[in-house]
Amino acid sequence: MRITLRFFASVREQLGTSQEQLTLPAGVATVGEVRTFLQQRGGLWSDALGQDRPLRMAFNHVMCAPDTAIADGGEVAFFPPVTGG
Q1: CA 83: distance to chain centroid?
Q2: Which of 10, 4, 18 is nearest to 50 (CA)?
Q3: Residue 79 burial by CB count (10 A; 0-12/13-18/19+): exposed, middle or buried?
Q4: Does any domain span residue 9?
Q5: What is the pLDDT of residues 22-70, one digit of tens each?
Q6: What is the extent of the structural domain holding 9?
Q7: Residue 54 to residues 21, 27, 72, 73: CA-CA distances in angstroms?
């Protein structure tokens, strides 16, 4: 499954990127599993997306919970709970 990742505000700043195209391995099927998969990259990824860090998530521009299923061609976004304009 191929998805687009989007990162906003402090998450974008910490990772040094605003988006990425990613082919997911089999078994990664929810927004929360995407987050866990990215954390496994280690380093900055683990820090920016760690489970101890409060983050909001969206799938296809709709706020969602970690158990939200994803689909091929979709967009998963991560951002801090409060962002400025």
Answers
A1: 16
A2: 10
A3: middle
A4: yes
A5: 999 999 999 999 999 999 999 999 999 998 999 999 999 999 999 999 9
A6: 2-79
A7: 24, 24, 26, 26
**pLDDT band at 82; cut points 50, 70, 90:** confident
Helix intervals (H) in 40-80: 43-49
Write the CATH number for 51.
3.10.20.30
pLDDT at 78: 97
For 54, 57, 75, 76, 85, the CA distances from 22, given in Å and listed in that order, are 23, 17, 10, 10, 28
Whether 80 contacts 9, CB under 8 Å = yes
